[in-house]
């Protein structure tokens, strides 16, 4: 009997290990779509077989909605198109959106990341996406959000009881129904720059929406803009999509500026900067700090999920048919550094995602192969030497006596020292750099760095100066929108939970559709216009400000000083080499004090250092 139990335990452990190897989070119920394993649970496989046999008809010959979703999922698994290229229309994207993608982004075929992401999003299942930087994750999210269906909310039209009727109303008359607008999608991102970029993409990919109606489609909520102005704007016009940063969203959510009771999709882009998971080797104090002082996105998402699930429970009990509140909300998270502890934290511990589809397309966190990496050590005399790899330093025999010049080489330099700035200038001149990013630590003065770069002939600017947040988020000059928002009566917004009606004659939208504002919104501000046009060659920013940004013309990335973590280095390096283009990442160290640290980082990430000559 004891022998039988021991064999049973060994078999159970073997099954658990096998489940862990295929990355099944919920005991085999989670689908893992990756380069190594492409699995689907038995229920979806059975539906696929039924769909192939019945060709889109139900048991009694009636059409069902499930085959459409299953067909899109089959396309992701390669069951529909076995070729290397697949158009967006084959993945379920509308034809109008496909044409706009080709005209604006010159994108005719979906990338491998987008081929896996789009059908998973359209299936309305929870999704977890991990892929290398520059693979098109954010663009795939935007395309997926615009391709999703928008369930209508039909309510009886309001009847004007004050106006006398010519004829008495007959009994048993069917009241006309009107479609009401409600918040459909909420996108939470860690930085203002990424929020502005996503908002701009949504507007660009919706050419059928007039500029005066952009606020009904999407609104951007970030810091740097008057909060009361954003509050009045959200209360006056209920958008379909809200894109924002967690701190400002939390403040407006506490003020009941928007209603999440009918929220259908919530996207957490760069989720590792919104939520902090408990590490395996964290001490008691570190775990206590993470619980007492959570990141800004954690309490916001917890509150939204709690309210949304409670609203769905109330709608189920009251048997509201046809209400979008009855539909389960979809949660989509993605990041290039989505590690296993964070996955377990979001699914098992927090319960944010229910049986999610895991799209792990790169396995371990790594940089794209089309990017070259260099690390240069600058001494106090302006001399530049390439950092030797750990294999070279270990194979070379060390002298018994220290060289007198080692003390001078080990002398430290600030990250933005003049010698380092001159090295950047020399590299830009020799390699003819037209567009690049300069990353510095938060302790470095950005203004002083920009003055130094401009003094030596490099056209540089801060990334904050390339975006007008008020014009980019509100779609027009702040004075015009401010005057309109201040004229809106607060009495019209005493019921936040009810979404605003689509009929413009039944709400105070006439105030917001004035000729002055509509003409100003036709030419809303384009972010990064000076950098993309070539007027500015270098942008200075911190490692946190560039999360998720897509600047396709960047060819060089300069990192001044050591990065805070390997994941931070991957995200900074991923700002170049977008969509398979060649890119160059150059790390500049002031002295040899961080040499061993950088050698360990490159060895951990398995990044080969380019054998560069002295600059």
From TrEMBL:
Q: What class of enzyme is it?
A: hydrolase
Q: Which SMART domains match?
A: DEXDc, HELICc
From what superkingdom does this record's organism come?
Eukaryota
One example GO MF annotation: ATP binding
The UniProt regions of compositional bias labelled Acidic residues, in chain numbering, are 403-415
> Which ranges carry the Helicase C-terminal domain?
419-615
What InterPro entries would the database entry show? DEAD/DEAH_box_helicase_dom, DEAD_box_RNA_helicases, Helicase_ATP-bd, Helicase_C-like, P-loop_NTPase
UniProt biased composition (Low complexity): 509-518
Q: Which UniProt keywords apply?
A: ATP-binding, Helicase, Hydrolase, Nucleotide-binding
Q: Which residues form the Helicase ATP-binding domain?
A: 118-356
Segments of this protein annotated with the region Disordered: 153-176, 387-415, 493-518
**Pfam families, from UniProt?**
DEAD, Helicase_C
Q: Sorted alphabetically, which PANTHER family does this protein's record hold?
A: ATP-DEPENDENT RNA HELICASE DEAD (PTHR47963:SF8), DEAD-BOX ATP-DEPENDENT RNA HELICASE 47, MITOCHONDRIAL (PTHR47963)
The name under which this protein is listed is: RNA helicase
Protein source organism: Spizellomyces punctatus (strain DAOM BR117)
């Amino acid at each position: 009997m004891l022998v039988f139990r021991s064999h049973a335990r060994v078999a159970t452990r073997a099954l658990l290990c096998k489940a862990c190897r295929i990355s099944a989070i919920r005991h085999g119920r989670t689908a893992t779509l990756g380069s190594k394993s492409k699995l689907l649970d038995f229920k979806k496989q059975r539906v696929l077989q039924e769909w192939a046999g019945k060709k889109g008809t139900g048991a009694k010959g009636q059409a069902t909605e499930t085959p459409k979703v299953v067909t899109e999922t089959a396309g992701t698994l390669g069951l529909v198109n076995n070729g290397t290229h697949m158009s967006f229309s084959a993945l379920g994207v509308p034809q109008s959106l496909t044409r706009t993608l080709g005209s604006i982004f010159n994108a005719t075929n979906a990338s491998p990341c987008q081929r896996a992401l789009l059908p998973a999003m359209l299936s309305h299942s929870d999704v977890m996406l991990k892929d290398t930087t520059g693979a098109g994750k954010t663009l795939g999210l935007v395309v997926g959000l615009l391709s999703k269906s928008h369930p209508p909310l039909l309510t009886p039209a309001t009847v004007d009881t004050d106006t006398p009727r010519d004829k008495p109303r007959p009994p048993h008359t069917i009241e006309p129904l009107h479609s009401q607008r409600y918040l459909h999608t909420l996108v939470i991102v860690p930085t203002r720059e990424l929020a502005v970029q996503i908002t701009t993409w949504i507007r660009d990919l919706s050419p059928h929406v007039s500029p005066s109606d952009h606020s009904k489609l999407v609104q951007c909520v970030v810091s740097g803009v008057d909060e009361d102005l954003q509050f009045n704007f959200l209360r006056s016009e209920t958008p379909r999509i809200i894109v924002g940063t967690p701190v400002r969203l939390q403040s407006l959510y506490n003020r009941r500026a928007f209603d999440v009771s009918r929220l259908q999709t919530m996207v957490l882009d760069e989720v590792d900067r919104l939520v902090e998971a408990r590490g395996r080797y964290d001490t008691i104090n570190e775990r206590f700090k993470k619980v007492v002082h959570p990141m800004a996105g954690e309490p916001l998402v917890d509150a939204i999920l709690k309210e949304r699930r409670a609203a769905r429970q109330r709608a189920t009990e009251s048997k509201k048919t046809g209400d979008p509140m009855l539909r389960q909300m979809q949660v989509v998270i993605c990041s290039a550094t989505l590690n296993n502890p964070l996955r377990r934290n979001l699914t098992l511990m927090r319960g944010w995602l229910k049986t999610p589809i895991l799209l792990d397309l790169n396995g371990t966190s790594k940089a794209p192969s089309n990017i070259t990496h260099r690390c240069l050590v600058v001494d106090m005399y302006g001399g530049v030497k390439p950092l030797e790899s750990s294999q070279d330093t270990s194979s070379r025999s060390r002298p018994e006596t220290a060289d007198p010049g080692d003390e001078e080489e080990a002398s430290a330099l600030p990250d933005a020292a003049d010698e380092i700035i001159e090295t950047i200038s020399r590299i830009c001149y020799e390699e003819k750099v037209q567009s690049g990013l300069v990353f510095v630590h938060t302790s470095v003065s950005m203004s002083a760095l920009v003055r130094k770069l401009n003094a030596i002939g490099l056209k540089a600017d801060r990334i904050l100066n390339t975006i007008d947040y008020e014009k980019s988020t509100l779609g027009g000059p702040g004075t015009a929108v401010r005057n309109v928002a201040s004229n809106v009566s607060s009495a019209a917004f005493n019921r936040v939970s009810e979404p605003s009606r689509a009929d413009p004659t039944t709400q105070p939208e006439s105030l917001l559709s004035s000729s002055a504002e509509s003409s100003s919104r036709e030419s809303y501000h384009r972010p990064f216009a000076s950098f993309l046009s070539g007027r500015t060659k270098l942008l200075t920013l911190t490692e946190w400000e560039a999360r998720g940004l897509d600047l396709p013309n960047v060819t060089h990335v300069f990192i001044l000083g050591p990065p805070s973590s390997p994941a931070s280095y991957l995200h900074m390096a991923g700002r170049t080499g977008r969509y398979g283009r060649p890119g160059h990442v150059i790390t500049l160290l002031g002295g040899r004090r961080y040499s061993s640290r950088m050698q360990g980082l490159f060895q951990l990430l398995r990044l080969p250092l380019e054998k560069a000559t002295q600059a």
